[in-house]
# Entry
Amino acid sequence: MVFLVKNIGMFFLSFFLYFAANIFYISQYNIYPIFLIYTLIMVTTYYKGFYFFPAIIGMFIYFYEPIISIYDMFTLLCIIYMFFISNFIASLFKYYSRIQPHKREVYYMIFYVVIFPLLYNFFYYGISEAFYVNLNVFKLEGALISLYFSDVFHSLTILPIFFVIYEFYVNKSKIKLEIKNFSVVYYVPVILILMFYLLYPLEKYKDLILILFIPAAGFFVGFKGQIKSWFFCSLISIGIYILKCQQLNNNDISVYEFNSSILYLVVINLFLFLLLIKGSFYKNLLLKQKDRLKRDPVTKLKNINCLLDDCKNLKSLTLIEINFQSFFTNYTGVTFNEKISIFNAVSKNISRSYLSTTYLSPSSSGLLIYFKAKNFNPSYFINDLSEIVRNTEVSINNQCLNPNNVIIKGMEINTGEKGYLIDNISTLCDSTSIPNIPIWINENSSCDKFEELFYSKSLISNEHLEIYFQVYKANLSDDLYGEVLTRVVHKDKVESIYKYFPMMGDLGLFITMDFIVIEKVFKLINEYSSKLTGVGYISLNVSTQSLSSEGFVDKIKVLINQYNIDTSKFCFEVSESDICLDSRLYVENINGLRELGAKVAIDDLGAGYSGFSYLKKLPYDVVKFDGEFIRNIITNKNDYAIVKAINSFCLDMGKETVAEFVETGEQAELLGELGVTYFQGYWVAKPILFKDVLDQHVLNRN
# Structure
């Protein structure tokens, strides 16, 4: 509605402007009062929004003198055209300007449509003729038609030049527009028009053919659509315009031919102008998409993809990892936003000292930095970096602290292929180290080859993922309980999926893998539904990326309906170290799974020493103890006390518990005395193919 009212107001404003200009000194061709009226109306219309003021005045003048000739209507159309172009100009620069929204339109409209034509006349025709229309130059029947033809045309032709200068100043680099975006909207119409006019004598339409040919030639000269083509087209158009003025002055062409030529130029420039806006839109959209791929979807920090792209032209570099995992585990309840603030604070101090960019490490628990510096002492350099990190002040639980227990590792790399650089990143991040003791790692350290996995993505697919299952032993039930485990079949070997985790998050494979595994499990359960009884629940691991994605629960609903699944027989596990309570989508998806009837389990409780905090805040049904507490529970009194306290709390709240890494009967007996609901580990069963588990369960039931 606002858009409609605005444009209706602009239409009536055109009437008012035309007739008002004819009232003031039209016989003397003095355009200075016209500019005053024009500026006044522009300001009142755009700044205050008085759309009906020019409309009422325009209607009054229209009814006062209703007779309008065809020539007048043509002039009026030119005025309306100028106002719509003004809207386009204001909209374009609205995107690039930081001026307040209610002011920027006024500034740009006045400059490009009012001030600039005035300045152009000032410098082109000389000071004495700055405010007058020179009839010896134009030889037109009325002053307004020359004014608007010339001023609108000059505003349009000069705009691409200003646009190039502005973009070059902001981006500091050559700008390219993808030619493929313009093939349909530009080349096809141009070719059709050329073919049409070639059927007629070329002499009659040579000006039109020349005007249409120049932008196309500019594209080919620019090669792949470089922005210099716009500059080329603008200069040629201005040259043609001046040439036509000279031909008119010399009586080589008629007024009608002059008007036609100028009209063609205006239309072509309008087309180029709209094309420029379209190209700018596609270019910015492409840049946003590229930037999105180079940032972690959760933390919004630059990821491995960005690091690989920034280092692709370097022959050698120094790579540093700063790992905060030990620091995080020393403080209970470190929130997701606090982790991001720590990363940002450290990144800021490092950038201030070394002017270097930081990237999120594959484990999402640290930062990566690369340097191009050579001939420096690695030991001094890495110790200096360690000092910068320790001197950074961060806020945790409303307390100002300095990061301690931080692991810093460095490596010099002679870069080669992309996969080789990934291997070295993996070597650096996977290597063990002691907090507060910086180490330097040999580039030739052995590491797994991830190139085939992460750049063909062939392994994260239906045919390469196998579903295994590790059965629980229930303390008070004989039903089937257990956890689904994913294995990768690669080069005739069955491998754990966990070894590929460091890179999967940065390449966006977690969500794909989650849905492949869930659908495989649902499909297998559906195949056994007619003969499968006595199932407690089947536990599925879900990544933070999936739980933080839009529409996750809706996609699960589709699979549930497709395979006719009883959701009460399923439990979705979330790892404590990946819990993201600060994400709205994360919490909504957790609640959505429970609303479907499924259970939610907190996996590896205690690994981050934030267990009780999450038990208080996160909706859950099952708690799984981290294996570190179970492995030494017989001999370690602290582990025993922690498991006993958390298990007692969960039972009082009506929740179930699972003990992982149960490897001896003595451990199982002690856990049974504590009242732990389920046992998981090699003492109970080793992971085997899920299909084999279902076959065995059906056989036992029969």
The CA atoms of residues 659 and 671 lie 8 Å apart. The chain has three domains: 68-290, 304-447, 455-701. The chain has 27 helices and 18 strands. The two ends are 71 Å apart (CA to CA).
